[in-house]
Write a structure and sequence with these properties.
Layout: E1 3-8, E2 14-19, E3 27-28, H1 31-39, E4 44-46, E5 53-55, H2 61-71, E6 73-78
Length: 81
């Protein structure tokens, strides 16, 4: 089941993306969000404020969502992970 995320960047720009779970194209719907996810690939990211840590990979939907929560204001998140 696709995971849809709606959010906003610090500058107020809104986005709506689908987290695909595919390593070669982790998100669909925003080039800016795709660039953000790519920028943080290979970094450790907290899945929740208290952990656990996981290596950011495009095929890890939980890690992609954690990056979006950390660097943007996630307004709505529907579907799995």
């Amino acid at each position: 089941m696709p995971h849809t995320v709606t959010g906003r960047f610090d500058d107020g720009s809104a986005y709506k993306v689908v987290i695909t779970g595919e390593a070669d194209r982790p998100v669909i719907g925003s080039a800016r969000v795709a660039a953000l996810v790519e920028l943080h690939a290979g970094e450790s990211v907290l899945l929740t404020p208290t952990g656990p840590l996981r290596m950011m990979a495009g095929d890890d939907t939980g890690a992609v969502l954690a990056v979006l929560r950390r660097y943007t204001d996630v307004l709505e998140s529907r579907g799995a992970p």
